[in-house]
Amino acid sequence: MKYTNAFIPYKGYYSTPFCRWQGSLANENAIELGAAVSRQLLEEKDIDVERLDYLIFGNTIGQHHQFYSSPWAAAMLGASKLPAIAISQACTTGATCINQAAMGVEQGLYSMPYVLTVDRCSNGPHTIWPNPKGPGGEVISENWNMDNFNGDPNTGQKMVETAENVGKLGGFTKEECDALALYRYEQYQTALKDDRAFQKRYMRPVEIRISKRKTIAVEEDEGVTPSTAEGLAKLKPLLPGGILSFGAQTHPADGNAGMLVTTKEIAGEVSEDANVSIQVISYGYARVEKAHMPAAPVPATRMALANAGLSIQDISVIKTHNPFVVNDLFLAKELDIDPKNINNFGSSMIFGHPQGPTATRLIIEGIEETVLKGGGYLLWTGCAAGDCGAALVLKIS
Protein backbone atom coordinates (compact mmCIF):
# COMPACT_ATOMS: atom_id res chain seq x y z
CA MET A 1 0.00 0.00 0.00
CA LYS A 2 1.25 3.46 -0.93
CA TYR A 3 0.04 6.33 1.25
CA THR A 4 -1.13 9.61 -0.26
CA ASN A 5 -2.43 11.68 2.66
CA ALA A 6 -0.28 10.97 5.71
CA PHE A 7 2.07 13.82 6.59
CA ILE A 8 4.39 14.85 9.41
CA PRO A 9 4.51 18.58 10.26
CA TYR A 10 8.01 19.98 9.97
CA LYS A 11 9.43 20.21 13.51
CA GLY A 12 6.33 18.47 14.84
CA TYR A 13 8.61 15.96 16.50
CA TYR A 14 11.44 15.67 19.00
CA SER A 15 13.83 13.29 20.65
CA THR A 16 15.47 13.61 24.01
CA PRO A 17 19.13 12.75 24.42
CA PHE A 18 19.75 9.04 24.87
CA CYS A 19 21.55 8.11 28.10
CA ARG A 20 23.42 4.86 28.59
CA TRP A 21 21.53 2.72 31.08
CA GLN A 22 22.04 3.38 34.78
CA GLY A 23 22.87 7.00 33.91
CA SER A 24 21.01 10.27 34.43
CA LEU A 25 17.59 8.91 33.39
CA ALA A 26 17.88 5.65 35.31
CA ASN A 27 15.32 6.52 37.98
CA GLU A 28 12.72 8.29 35.83
CA ASN A 29 9.49 6.53 34.92
CA ALA A 30 9.70 6.51 31.12
CA ILE A 31 5.95 7.01 30.68
CA GLU A 32 5.84 10.08 32.90
CA LEU A 33 9.01 11.56 31.40
CA GLY A 34 7.86 11.05 27.81
CA ALA A 35 4.49 12.64 28.53
CA ALA A 36 6.14 15.63 30.23
CA VAL A 37 8.51 16.33 27.34
CA SER A 38 5.71 15.87 24.80
CA ARG A 39 3.50 18.31 26.64
CA GLN A 40 6.29 20.89 26.47
CA LEU A 41 6.63 20.33 22.73
CA LEU A 42 2.91 20.79 22.06
CA GLU A 43 2.72 23.89 24.24
CA GLU A 44 5.70 25.49 22.50
CA LYS A 45 4.22 24.68 19.09
CA ASP A 46 0.92 26.17 20.28
CA ILE A 47 -0.94 22.99 19.38
CA ASP A 48 -4.11 22.53 21.39
CA VAL A 49 -4.16 18.95 22.73
CA GLU A 50 -7.90 18.93 22.09
CA ARG A 51 -7.06 18.72 18.38
CA LEU A 52 -5.39 15.36 18.90
CA ASP A 53 -7.76 12.48 18.24
CA TYR A 54 -5.61 9.46 19.15
CA LEU A 55 -2.42 8.62 21.03
CA ILE A 56 -0.30 5.78 19.75
CA PHE A 57 2.10 4.89 22.54
CA GLY A 58 5.09 2.61 22.09
CA ASN A 59 7.41 0.99 24.59
CA THR A 60 9.02 -2.38 25.19
CA ILE A 61 10.23 -2.43 28.78
CA GLY A 62 7.54 -2.39 31.45
CA GLN A 63 7.32 0.63 33.76
CA HIS A 64 5.36 1.23 36.93
CA HIS A 65 1.67 1.51 35.91
CA GLN A 66 2.40 -0.14 32.56
CA PHE A 67 -1.15 -1.52 32.55
CA TYR A 68 -2.47 2.04 32.03
CA SER A 69 0.50 3.27 30.00
CA SER A 70 -1.21 4.79 26.95
CA PRO A 71 -4.32 6.42 28.49
CA TRP A 72 -2.22 7.59 31.43
CA ALA A 73 0.28 9.20 29.06
CA ALA A 74 -2.60 10.90 27.23
CA ALA A 75 -3.95 12.29 30.50
CA MET A 76 -0.52 13.63 31.43
CA LEU A 77 -0.43 15.41 28.06
CA GLY A 78 -3.47 17.32 29.29
CA ALA A 79 -5.83 15.31 27.10
CA SER A 80 -7.80 13.22 29.57
CA LYS A 81 -10.42 12.30 26.95
CA LEU A 82 -7.91 11.22 24.30
CA PRO A 83 -8.19 7.51 23.35
CA ALA A 84 -4.90 5.65 23.27
CA ILE A 85 -3.30 2.35 22.40
CA ALA A 86 0.01 0.75 23.38
CA ILE A 87 2.28 -1.02 20.87
CA SER A 88 5.38 -3.07 21.64
CA GLN A 89 7.62 -4.40 18.87
CA ALA A 90 11.05 -4.22 20.46
CA CYS A 91 13.50 -2.29 18.27
CA THR A 92 11.05 -1.39 15.47
CA THR A 93 8.37 -0.04 17.84
CA GLY A 94 8.82 3.59 16.75
CA ALA A 95 8.49 2.92 13.03
CA THR A 96 5.49 0.68 13.55
CA CYS A 97 3.76 3.32 15.70
CA ILE A 98 4.33 5.93 12.97
CA ASN A 99 2.94 3.52 10.40
CA GLN A 100 -0.14 2.86 12.53
CA ALA A 101 -0.74 6.60 12.76
CA ALA A 102 -0.23 7.01 8.99
CA MET A 103 -2.65 4.19 8.20
CA GLY A 104 -5.30 5.75 10.41
CA VAL A 105 -4.89 9.15 8.77
CA GLU A 106 -4.90 7.58 5.31
CA GLN A 107 -8.17 5.78 6.03
CA GLY A 108 -9.80 8.83 7.58
CA LEU A 109 -9.93 7.23 11.01
CA TYR A 110 -7.76 9.96 12.57
CA SER A 111 -6.97 13.53 11.59
CA MET A 112 -4.08 14.21 14.00
CA PRO A 113 -2.77 11.28 16.05
CA TYR A 114 0.28 11.73 18.26
CA VAL A 115 3.00 9.09 18.44
CA LEU A 116 4.86 8.86 21.75
CA THR A 117 7.66 6.32 22.10
CA VAL A 118 9.57 5.79 25.33
CA ASP A 119 11.74 3.27 27.12
CA ARG A 120 14.06 2.92 30.06
CA CYS A 121 16.47 0.02 29.92
CA SER A 122 17.80 1.04 33.32
CA ASN A 123 16.40 -0.76 36.35
CA GLY A 124 14.34 -3.11 34.22
CA PRO A 125 11.53 -5.07 35.86
CA HIS A 126 12.06 -8.38 37.60
CA THR A 127 8.89 -10.40 37.16
CA ILE A 128 7.56 -13.54 38.81
CA TRP A 129 4.67 -15.89 38.07
CA PRO A 130 3.11 -18.63 40.17
CA ASN A 131 4.42 -22.13 39.57
CA PRO A 132 1.94 -24.47 41.31
CA LYS A 133 3.86 -27.54 40.17
CA GLY A 134 7.23 -26.21 41.30
CA PRO A 135 8.99 -27.85 44.26
CA GLY A 136 8.23 -26.00 47.45
CA GLY A 137 6.01 -23.50 45.64
CA GLU A 138 9.00 -21.85 43.94
CA VAL A 139 8.08 -19.16 41.41
CA ILE A 140 8.92 -18.74 37.74
CA SER A 141 11.04 -15.59 37.46
CA GLU A 142 12.39 -13.39 34.69
CA ASN A 143 14.83 -10.52 34.60
CA TRP A 144 13.06 -8.53 31.89
CA ASN A 145 16.14 -7.12 30.18
CA MET A 146 19.01 -9.50 30.75
CA ASP A 147 17.11 -12.75 30.30
CA ASN A 148 15.68 -11.60 26.99
CA PHE A 149 18.91 -10.05 25.73
CA ASN A 150 20.55 -13.37 26.39
CA GLY A 151 18.08 -15.75 24.82
CA ASP A 152 15.17 -15.89 22.39
CA PRO A 153 12.71 -18.48 23.80
CA ASN A 154 12.00 -19.54 20.22
CA THR A 155 15.60 -20.33 19.33
CA GLY A 156 17.56 -20.31 22.58
CA GLN A 157 20.16 -18.04 20.98
CA LYS A 158 21.47 -14.71 22.22
CA MET A 159 21.09 -11.62 20.06
CA VAL A 160 24.83 -11.50 19.47
CA GLU A 161 24.64 -15.07 18.20
CA THR A 162 22.08 -14.01 15.60
CA ALA A 163 24.53 -11.32 14.51
CA GLU A 164 27.34 -13.82 14.22
CA ASN A 165 25.08 -16.07 12.15
CA VAL A 166 24.46 -13.23 9.70
CA GLY A 167 28.16 -12.37 9.75
CA LYS A 168 28.93 -15.89 8.57
CA LEU A 169 26.17 -15.70 5.97
CA GLY A 170 27.71 -12.52 4.59
CA GLY A 171 31.29 -13.76 4.85
CA PHE A 172 32.42 -10.71 6.82
CA THR A 173 35.62 -10.39 8.87
CA LYS A 174 36.38 -8.71 12.18
CA GLU A 175 38.52 -6.21 10.29
CA GLU A 176 35.53 -5.20 8.14
CA CYS A 177 33.36 -4.88 11.24
CA ASP A 178 35.93 -2.74 13.04
CA ALA A 179 36.47 -0.47 10.04
CA LEU A 180 32.76 0.27 9.61
CA ALA A 181 32.24 0.61 13.38
CA LEU A 182 34.94 3.30 13.44
CA TYR A 183 33.32 5.05 10.48
CA ARG A 184 29.96 5.02 12.28
CA TYR A 185 31.62 6.70 15.27
CA GLU A 186 33.12 9.35 13.00
CA GLN A 187 29.71 9.96 11.41
CA TYR A 188 28.26 10.62 14.85
CA GLN A 189 30.99 13.16 15.50
CA THR A 190 29.71 15.26 12.59
CA ALA A 191 26.42 15.71 14.50
CA LEU A 192 28.41 17.30 17.33
CA LYS A 193 30.12 19.93 15.20
CA ASP A 194 29.38 23.62 15.70
CA ASP A 195 28.11 23.09 19.23
CA ARG A 196 25.90 20.14 18.20
CA ALA A 197 24.13 22.18 15.51
CA PHE A 198 22.61 19.13 13.82
CA GLN A 199 21.27 17.54 16.99
CA LYS A 200 19.82 20.83 18.16
CA ARG A 201 17.56 20.78 15.10
CA TYR A 202 15.41 18.16 16.86
CA MET A 203 16.77 17.29 20.32
CA ARG A 204 15.07 18.60 23.45
CA PRO A 205 16.89 18.73 26.81
CA VAL A 206 15.33 16.94 29.76
CA GLU A 207 15.10 18.32 33.28
CA ILE A 208 15.55 15.75 36.04
CA ARG A 209 14.82 16.48 39.67
CA ILE A 210 17.58 14.98 41.79
CA SER A 211 16.16 16.23 45.09
CA LYS A 212 13.77 18.86 46.40
CA ARG A 213 16.44 21.49 45.89
CA LYS A 214 18.39 20.21 42.89
CA THR A 215 17.42 19.82 39.24
CA ILE A 216 19.77 18.91 36.41
CA ALA A 217 19.38 19.34 32.66
CA VAL A 218 20.37 16.46 30.39
CA GLU A 219 21.18 18.22 27.13
CA GLU A 220 23.15 15.68 25.13
CA ASP A 221 23.67 11.95 24.74
CA GLU A 222 25.41 10.23 27.62
CA GLY A 223 27.64 7.21 27.47
CA VAL A 224 28.95 7.25 23.90
CA THR A 225 32.20 5.30 23.89
CA PRO A 226 35.11 6.87 21.98
CA SER A 227 36.49 4.63 19.24
CA THR A 228 39.86 4.38 17.55
CA ALA A 229 41.18 1.92 15.00
CA GLU A 230 43.81 0.73 17.49
CA GLY A 231 41.29 0.32 20.28
CA LEU A 232 38.83 -1.64 18.15
CA ALA A 233 41.57 -3.94 16.86
CA LYS A 234 42.54 -4.85 20.44
CA LEU A 235 39.02 -5.82 21.47
CA LYS A 236 38.40 -9.55 21.38
CA PRO A 237 35.27 -11.02 19.79
CA LEU A 238 32.38 -11.58 22.20
CA LEU A 239 32.08 -15.20 21.10
CA PRO A 240 34.88 -17.69 20.36
CA GLY A 241 35.71 -17.56 16.67
CA GLY A 242 33.39 -14.58 16.19
CA ILE A 243 33.85 -11.25 14.41
CA LEU A 244 31.97 -8.87 16.73
CA SER A 245 33.46 -7.11 19.74
CA PHE A 246 31.82 -4.70 22.20
CA GLY A 247 33.01 -1.91 19.91
CA ALA A 248 30.83 -3.12 17.04
CA GLN A 249 27.48 -3.23 18.82
CA THR A 250 25.06 -0.87 20.53
CA HIS A 251 24.40 -0.36 24.24
CA PRO A 252 21.12 -0.24 26.19
CA ALA A 253 19.90 3.30 26.90
CA ASP A 254 17.05 5.47 28.19
CA GLY A 255 15.11 8.18 26.35
CA ASN A 256 11.93 9.15 24.52
CA ALA A 257 10.77 10.65 21.24
CA GLY A 258 7.46 11.90 19.85
CA MET A 259 5.90 12.85 16.52
CA LEU A 260 2.68 14.26 15.10
CA VAL A 261 1.15 12.57 12.05
CA THR A 262 -1.71 14.27 10.24
CA THR A 263 -3.25 15.27 6.92
CA LYS A 264 -1.52 17.39 4.33
CA GLU A 265 -3.76 20.36 5.11
CA ILE A 266 -3.20 20.28 8.86
CA ALA A 267 0.53 19.59 8.46
CA GLY A 268 0.85 22.76 6.39
CA GLU A 269 -1.01 24.67 9.08
CA VAL A 270 1.05 23.56 12.09
CA SER A 271 4.48 23.08 10.45
CA GLU A 272 7.26 25.40 11.53
CA ASP A 273 7.90 25.92 7.83
CA ALA A 274 4.90 25.28 5.57
CA ASN A 275 7.25 25.08 2.58
CA VAL A 276 8.69 21.80 3.90
CA SER A 277 6.52 18.78 3.13
CA ILE A 278 7.13 15.43 4.91
CA GLN A 279 4.97 12.62 3.55
CA VAL A 280 4.79 9.04 4.81
CA ILE A 281 4.89 6.90 1.66
CA SER A 282 5.07 3.21 2.58
CA TYR A 283 5.90 0.55 5.15
CA GLY A 284 7.47 -2.88 4.94
CA TYR A 285 7.87 -5.79 7.34
CA ALA A 286 9.49 -9.21 7.44
CA ARG A 287 10.53 -12.17 9.53
CA VAL A 288 13.54 -14.22 8.49
CA GLU A 289 15.07 -17.58 9.23
CA LYS A 290 15.43 -18.41 12.93
CA ALA A 291 18.35 -16.73 14.72
CA HIS A 292 19.17 -14.38 11.82
CA MET A 293 17.72 -11.15 13.21
CA PRO A 294 20.16 -8.68 11.53
CA ALA A 295 19.13 -10.01 8.10
CA ALA A 296 15.47 -9.01 8.55
CA PRO A 297 15.82 -5.38 7.36
CA VAL A 298 16.64 -6.59 3.85
CA PRO A 299 13.24 -8.13 2.95
CA ALA A 300 11.44 -5.42 4.94
CA THR A 301 13.24 -2.78 2.87
CA ARG A 302 12.41 -4.51 -0.38
CA MET A 303 8.75 -4.61 0.62
CA ALA A 304 8.66 -0.91 1.56
CA LEU A 305 10.37 0.07 -1.70
CA ALA A 306 7.98 -2.09 -3.74
CA ASN A 307 4.97 -0.57 -1.97
CA ALA A 308 6.34 2.89 -2.75
CA GLY A 309 7.10 2.04 -6.37
CA LEU A 310 10.75 2.96 -5.84
CA SER A 311 14.17 1.38 -6.17
CA ILE A 312 17.04 1.75 -3.74
CA GLN A 313 18.67 4.12 -6.24
CA ASP A 314 15.75 6.53 -5.73
CA ILE A 315 16.60 6.95 -2.03
CA SER A 316 18.50 10.05 -0.94
CA VAL A 317 19.02 9.24 2.76
CA ILE A 318 19.20 5.89 4.53
CA LYS A 319 19.04 5.48 8.31
CA THR A 320 19.15 2.11 10.02
CA HIS A 321 18.75 0.67 13.45
CA ASN A 322 22.04 -1.22 13.63
CA PRO A 323 22.44 -2.98 16.99
CA PHE A 324 25.36 -4.78 15.37
CA VAL A 325 27.56 -3.46 12.60
CA VAL A 326 26.80 -6.59 10.56
CA ASN A 327 23.28 -5.19 10.07
CA ASP A 328 24.69 -2.49 7.80
CA LEU A 329 27.27 -4.72 6.14
CA PHE A 330 24.61 -7.27 5.21
CA LEU A 331 22.07 -4.66 4.05
CA ALA A 332 24.68 -2.98 1.88
CA LYS A 333 25.81 -6.25 0.37
CA GLU A 334 22.30 -7.46 -0.42
CA LEU A 335 21.12 -4.13 -1.87
CA ASP A 336 24.43 -3.38 -3.61
CA ILE A 337 25.01 -0.04 -1.93
CA ASP A 338 27.99 1.52 -0.17
CA PRO A 339 27.68 1.06 3.62
CA LYS A 340 29.45 4.39 4.09
CA ASN A 341 26.45 6.15 2.55
CA ILE A 342 24.22 4.98 5.42
CA ASN A 343 23.66 6.70 8.79
CA ASN A 344 25.17 10.13 8.31
CA PHE A 345 25.12 12.08 11.60
CA GLY A 346 24.81 8.97 13.75
CA SER A 347 23.14 5.66 14.40
CA SER A 348 21.86 3.60 17.29
CA MET A 349 25.01 1.49 17.31
CA ILE A 350 26.81 4.59 18.57
CA PHE A 351 24.32 6.67 20.56
CA GLY A 352 22.48 3.76 22.16
CA HIS A 353 19.25 1.84 22.01
CA PRO A 354 16.31 2.50 24.35
CA GLN A 355 14.22 0.28 22.03
CA GLY A 356 10.83 2.07 21.93
CA PRO A 357 12.10 5.48 20.73
CA THR A 358 15.13 4.27 18.78
CA ALA A 359 13.50 4.14 15.34
CA THR A 360 11.61 7.37 16.02
CA ARG A 361 14.83 9.28 16.66
CA LEU A 362 16.52 7.78 13.62
CA ILE A 363 13.59 8.74 11.39
CA ILE A 364 13.68 12.28 12.78
CA GLU A 365 17.41 12.50 12.08
CA GLY A 366 16.76 11.22 8.58
CA ILE A 367 14.12 13.90 8.02
CA GLU A 368 16.52 16.64 9.11
CA GLU A 369 19.34 15.29 6.93
CA THR A 370 17.03 15.10 3.92
CA VAL A 371 15.87 18.69 4.50
CA LEU A 372 19.51 19.80 4.58
CA LYS A 373 20.07 18.01 1.26
CA GLY A 374 17.16 19.89 -0.31
CA GLY A 375 14.67 17.04 -0.24
CA GLY A 376 14.29 13.51 -1.55
CA TYR A 377 13.23 10.09 -0.33
CA LEU A 378 14.20 8.84 3.12
CA LEU A 379 14.44 5.15 3.98
CA TRP A 380 14.57 3.91 7.54
CA THR A 381 15.02 0.20 8.20
CA GLY A 382 15.89 -1.98 11.17
CA CYS A 383 15.58 -5.34 12.87
CA ALA A 384 13.64 -6.39 15.94
CA ALA A 385 13.79 -9.19 18.47
CA GLY A 386 12.48 -12.50 17.17
CA ASP A 387 14.09 -12.22 13.73
CA CYS A 388 11.67 -9.49 12.60
CA GLY A 389 12.31 -6.36 10.58
CA ALA A 390 10.54 -3.20 9.42
CA ALA A 391 11.12 -0.34 7.00
CA LEU A 392 9.52 3.02 6.35
CA VAL A 393 9.80 5.33 3.33
CA LEU A 394 9.14 9.08 3.55
CA LYS A 395 9.27 11.84 0.95
CA ILE A 396 10.61 15.24 1.94
CA SER A 397 10.19 18.18 -0.40
Describe the overall structure:
- It is built from 13 helices and 14 strands.
- The strands form 4 sheets. Strands 1, 2, 3, 4, 5 and 10 form a 6-stranded mixed β-sheet that branches.
- Strand 8 and strand 9 form a beta hairpin.
- Helix 1 (30-44) packs parallel to helix 2, helix 3 (93-106) crosses helix 13 and helix 5 (159-170) packs parallel to helix 11 (325-335).
- The chain folds into 2 domains: 13-123 and 251-270, Peroxisomal Thiolase, Chain A, domain 1 (3-Layer(aba) Sandwich); 159-248 and 276-396, Peroxisomal Thiolase, Chain A, domain 1, CATH 3.40.47.10.
- It has helices at residues 30-44, 69-76, 93-106, 144-149, 159-170, 174-190, 193-196, 229-234, 264-270, 297-308, 325-335, 348-351, 358-372; strands at residues 13-15, 19-20, 54-58, 84-87, 113-120, 126-129, 140-143, 206-209, 215-218, 253-260, 278-287, 315-321, 376-384, 388-396.
- By secondary structure, it is α+β, with helices and mostly antiparallel strands.
- The longest helix is centred in the middle third of the chain and has 17 residues, at 174-190.
| Topology as a string of helices (H) and strands (E) | EEHEHEHEEEHHHHEEHEHEHEHHHEE
**Tally of extended strands?**
14
Please state the CA-atom Rg, rounded to the nearest Å. 20 Å
Number of domains as seen in the coordinates: 2
CATH superfamily of the largest domain: Thiolase/Chalcone synthase
Q: Could you estimate the helical fraction of the residues in percent?
A: 25-40%
Binned strand content? 15-25%
CA-to-CA gap between the ends?
21 Å
The CATH class assignment of the largest domain is Alpha Beta
Given helix and strand content, the structural type is: alpha+beta
Mean pLDDT: 97
Query: Which residues sit in consecutive blocks of at least 5 with pLDDT less than 50?
Result: none
CATH topology of the largest domain: Peroxisomal Thiolase, Chain A, domain 1
- What CATH architecture of the largest domain would you give? 3-Layer(aba) Sandwich
The largest β sheet comes out as: 6 strands, mixed
So how many helices? Answer: 13
Overall morphology:
globular
